Amino acid sequence: MPTDSLTLALWQSPYAANTADALARLDATAAQARAQGAELLVCPEMSLTGYQIGAAAVATLAEPAEGAMAQAVATLAQRHGIAIVYGYPEHNPQGRPFNATQLISADGQRIANYRKTHLFGGIDRTQFSPGPQAPAVFDWNGWRLGLLVCYDIEFPEPARGLALQGADAILVPTANMLAFDEVQRVLLPARALENRVFVVYANACGQEGDTTYGGLSTVCAPMGEVLTQAGRDEQLVLGTLTRTALHTARASSPLGDRRIDLY
Predict the structure, then answer these.
(1) How far apart (Å, rounded) are the C-alpha atoms in residues 167 and 136?
(2) Strand ranges in 50-209 using DSSP code E only, listed in sequence order
């Protein structure tokens, strides 16, 4: 049944040295998030393997959506009674792996899997294939949710497509670098406001090779206001989404005035 509110946690974290370490840290973080009242934990992009690890490592670690990493996350979700959104490299028999994210429910069920469609520069293009399908809305605990990955939210079309499918919130695992704070400052509030949806953006932090990730994990409300935002360092931040905020924002939504006869 639909619920009036949804409390979620964003895990802003540096990348672990390996998948075993990442899962151990996820275990502890899921326990902490649930103890603080979160029903859903959102992790960064490629959270179980690292992001800039090179094409050979990505290919070696890639596995099917129902593979060993999914099974390990399902065990953690069931152990702590919390749904988890995490990032991983998904095996692609036709080419490079996909940069994927998946939601596993608190009872260990795989609810939704999404493959990043907009690849960012050489980092993505040398490691991944672009996802072949537009994002789709799915139902979870009475909420209509959509998944995007990092660079996807910087384009208006993926978020608008999810909004037109009836999304209440867009969940965005990401690995945004320190030099691109305009995404958190400008684009996330704009995407929320123009589509009358919640935007949930879980970023990495710390160093990975020569790259510094910018943190500032953010939850935006449907009128664009920032509900919560992390700092630069490792942090678990909580935000609560409410149907009251959705209904209020949608009373003045411009979506019904779109000139679809012109574009």
Answers:
(1) 9
(2) 83-90, 98-104, 110-115, 138-140, 143-147, 169-173, 198-202, 205-208
220 given a catalytic annotation = no
Q: Are 147 and 43 in contact (CB under 8 A)?
A: no
pLDDT, tens digit, 9 for 90 and up, residues 38-88? 999 999 999 999 999 999 999 999 999 999 999 999 999 999 999 999 999
CA-CA distances (angstroms) from residue 89 to 37, 113, 119, 210, 228?
29, 12, 14, 21, 29
Sign of CA dihedral 209, 41, 73, 97: negative
Is there a contact between 96 and 129 (Cβ–Cβ < 8 Å)?
yes
pLDDT tens-digit readout, 173-219: 999 999 999 999 999 999 999 999 999 999 999 999 999 999 999 99
- Told to judge if 157 belongs to the known catalytic residues of this protein, a careful annotator would answer no
Record the tokens describing residue 32, joined without a space: 């902490």
Bridge partner list, 214? 205
pLDDT bucket at 3, cuts 50 / 70 / 90 = confident
Is 150 one of the catalytic residues?
A: yes
CATH 3.60.110.10 correct for 7-250: yes
The one catalytic residue among 150, 154, 205, 220: 150
39, 43, 45, 154: which one is catalytic? Answer: 45
| Alpha helical stretches, state H, the chain | 19-35, 55-61, 68-80, 121-125, 156-164, 182, 188-195, 243-250
C-alpha distance across the termini of the chain, in Å: 36
Cα–Cα distance, 184 to 220 (Å, whole number): 10
